[in-house]
Design a protein that fits this description.
Number of helices: 8
CATH topology: Undecaprenyl pyrophosphate synthetase
Strand order of the largest sheet: 3-4-2-1-5-6
Number of strands: 6
Radius of gyration: 18 Å
Distance between the termini: 5 Å
CATH architecture: 3-Layer(aba) Sandwich
Oligomer: single chain
Strand content: 15-25%
Order of helices and strands: EHHEHHEHEHHEEH
Number of domains: 1
Largest sheet: 6 strands, parallel
């Protein structure tokens, strides 16, 4: 069995964890960011080339404005204080999603990070920001129509946010919720999905490695028979 090239993660449970620990959703989001770093380095250790993290969905705008603003502040502060540590380790950062509605200064910082990390090749971390799979597919089809191309699988793939990224081998969702919540629906038709009871701040490197071990035991047929990697 070949190791996974691409792992995607729905990092669920930050708010609930924060409420349980300190009656603060903000605290949960802050601690969840620490887990992000741990899992990025765990992925590098296992030579995973693409890691996609569901950071902010198109549905997250429905949350209280104070929480949304705090998430923006958290991301803004992380870029200011910590992002260079990732870039020094040759980590490439790519955004998938539509960040046009984001605050202007934050957008500028995100684009600068993408540009600065453009040629890094240790791992590509895809940050799904204001991402929704339905909207992604609709946008792709609109682009195909605008360019007067044939609507087929190849062209839909070409105009997705993930056009240059292989489909995920593994999708992990923490937080004891068993759904994919509008995340990489097109790309995940043959993805191995692991639903984890732990909240994201409690998810560890050991948990991550156990999932990789389980994946390595799976015979992935992709709709055929007796096909082994």
């Amino acid at each position: 069995m070949n190791p996974p090239m691409h792992v995607a993660i729905i990092m669920d449970g930050n708010g609930r964890w924060g409420i349980k620990k300190k009656n603060s959703r903000k605290y949960g989001h802050k601690k969840g960011l620490e887990t992000v770093e741990k899992i990025i380095f765990a992925a590098i250790e296992k030579n995973i080339k693409f890691l996609t993290l569901f950071v902010f969905s198109t549905e997250n705008w429905k949350r209280p404005i104070k929480e949304v603003n705090y998430l923006f502040k958290l991301l803004n502060n992380y870029i200011d204080k910590e992002i260079n540590n990732l870039l020094k380790k040759k980590i490439k950062i790519k955004v998938i999603g539509n960040i046009k509605p984001f605050p202007k200064l934050l957008k500028t910082k995100i684009r600068k990070v993408e540009l600065k990390s453009k040629y890094n090749n240790k791992i590509q971390v895809n940050m799904a920001l204001n991402y929704g799979s339905r909207q992604e597919i609709i946008n792709s089809i609109k682009t195909i129509n605008k360019r007067k191309l044939i609507i087929n699988e190849k062209n839909i793939n070409k105009f997705l946010y993930t056009s240059s990224i292989p489909d995920p081998d593994i999708l992990i969702r923490t937080g004891n919720t068993n759904r994919i919540s509008n995340f990489l629906m097109w790309q995940s038709i043959y993805t191995e999905i692991f639903f984890i009871k732990k909240m994201w701040p409690d998810f560890t490197k050991t948990d991550f490695f156990k999932i990789l071990q389980k994946f390595n035991k799976i015979n992935r047929n992709f709709g055929g028979l007796n096909v082994r990697n």
